[in-house]
Design brief:
Helix content: 25-40%
Family: Belongs to the SIMIBI class G3E GTPase family. ZNG1 subfamily.
Protein name: GTP-binding protein
CATH class of the largest domain: Alpha Beta
Catalytic activity: GTP + H2O = GDP + phosphate + H(+)
CATH superfamily of the largest domain: P-loop containing nucleotide triphosphate hydrolases
Largest sheet: 7 strands, parallel
Structural class: alpha/beta
Order of helices and strands: EHEEHEHEHHEHEHHEEEEHEEEEH
Radius of gyration: 20 Å
Pfam families: cobW, CobW_C
Strand content: 25-35%
GO molecular function: hydrolase activity; nucleotide binding
CATH architecture of the largest domain: 3-Layer(aba) Sandwich
CATH topology of the largest domain: Rossmann fold
Shape: globular
Length: 328
Amino acid sequence: MINKIVPVYVLTGFLGSGKTTLLNRLLEDAKDRGWKPAILLNEVGDVNVEGQLIEKDIPMAELLGGCICCTSRGDLGLELVQLVQDNDPDVIWIESTGIAQPLEIMEGVTEASLYAKLELKNVVTVVDSRHLLDKLRIGSGKTFKLMKEQIRAGNIIVLNKSDLVQADDLTELQSALKDWNPNALIVTATRSEIDPSLIYERLVSIESTTAEHVHDHNCSHGSCEHGHHDHETLHDHVNAVTYYFKGSVDSVQFESFLQKLPDDIYRAKGIVSFSDAASLFLFQYAYRESDFIRITPQKPVNNVAVFIGEGFSRSELISQLELLDNQA
């Protein structure tokens, strides 16, 4: 089993906003950094035109004929796991179709982290300045609603094609973005040209993404500052935390832990092994209800739990998980 945790970045935004142009810039930057990138491209149609623009030596998976957030979400997880197993990438970029809802994609990525060591890092939303300005002036419609959802899900918003609007209009757009997503980093751009470090600045160096490596570099004189977790906030309203357990945990303590989760955590799932049972269990948690299913995987799997919610304390959750982990 590949041991490192692979960071995953989601690139979203409405049709024609400049996502593929940005993706190509980010792929070049990743190669300059010495990373091995992989990508997953989604198209509603049966032909992936944008895929023809990607260099042939970059591992790529395609989801065609459907949107990731609805008909293809299950396939998303399978493709991500396959990308990791076949190519051992250092970073994965997902470019969604322009009509996708990012929160559903986030759900698909966290689902895949149950079977491969993946970490959802950032959601980058690319916005066409002139298109958004037109929709903002109308103030209604399905496209306008979807664009707002995509903007609210991003923790980095690229206000692209800013050269096509007047300065006053650009100020109006920036004000609207701050109203819809006050915690996001807003970057203005022309032709999707931005500093990639703005996206990667929260990324722990790829060389230290395994739990064992983190342990080695953060422990000294018998004390350890960090546990075997790896997490990243997506934005202050929607958080996804992924925790990889060191080993088995006590079943009674784990069930008690789930029942005491705050209301702000509305979804959790994972694969756990219990110290007082001889099997692996797939667990599902939603709105105070939890379910455990005994499983017999055909391949090695991780002991991992994923939590999704709004506004909960990540540090407090991690502390509780570490306590649970260390008591086993």
